[in-house]
Amino acid sequence: MxxxxxxxxxxxxxxxxxxxxxxxxxxxxxxxxxxxxxxxVTIFGIxxxxxxxxxxxxxxxxxxxxxxxxxxxYFDTHSVSVGSPGAVTxxxxxxxALQFASAIGFSAVGADFFVYYPTTTPKRxxxxxxxxxxxxxxxxxxxxxxxxxxxxxxxxxxxxxxxxSSGALLLACYDGLGxxxxxxVLLLAFGSITNMSPCAYAAALDFQALGRYAKAIPxxxxxxxxxxxxxxxxxxxxxxLFTIFENFxxxxxxxxxxxxxxxxxxxxxxxxxxxxxxxxxxxxxxxxLPIGVAALxxxxxxxxxxxxxxxxxxxxxxxxxxxGDYGADIGAWLSIGFAGLAYPPLRIWELKHFxx
Length: 356
Description:
Layout: H1 2-20, H2 27-43, H3 46-71, H4 85-104, H5 111-114, H6 123-154, H7 156-164, H8 166-173, H9 178-189, H10 191-208, H11 212-216, H12 219-236, H13 241-248, H14 253-272, H15 293-309, E1 311-312, E2 315-316, H16 331-354
Antiparallel strand pairs: 1-2
């Protein structure tokens, strides 16, 4: 999942760099530049990632505020939703599911960064930092994105630019600012690097988790592999893979959502309520860890819920089709409900028969 989003980010950054250069720089070359920049940040380890992320967001905020000042006058704040009430409701549900799918992906890699926190860090502080760090940027950027979307419908120049690429549209939003506008768009292009560097670093751990042989390979080498995958895929598929991944990656919430649900229930029900602490020394001991039958079964049941509730361009589940005029994506919510109901009794059975 992290690699997939990295590929999309490389393609978007490549489109932006190409638009700035008046298409004298190809999108493919822009993809190479962005992928290599991500690799340089991640290969040298977590300390570099932390230092980079601590300050790299500041230019992005500046560029976004300038964009508001430049393009805000074209935002149609009086635009109303088009379609029947059912269709509007379905579209809103699907849009929220898309945002949820993007945000919840951090839960799969968050522990890779929290492990470096001091053990004395209050849990509430950690929660608030993650919550605010996740949702505030999403809300801010989505409001701007919705504004640009409404402006594209009424501004022919923006509509023409959008027909070229997302990067060309962003450049059009700074129209009238000359070279300074191009500089702001360049800052946004490198925002993809800021956004994806931690994800690429975490993806290396995902590879190491494949087994003891994968773990024996140094993490920096896996970062190189991730960089090469993102580079090759973004360059080779900047015209076709973008749409494919754009339609495919949102379904990642269908596995993350039940996985998070199972993890929370294990923690709250079978440890906090029972007063049983975690044995952190057994994190890699197969003889002490749970068998996994309950978790796997509940996960698959959650996936079944996701399938009947998903609404994607290539498949719509029977439950999703009931909502609105054209269906709505409720796959993530059904996966949470199905997995949440299935796991407790299955885990009780597992504890009774296996004792761990």
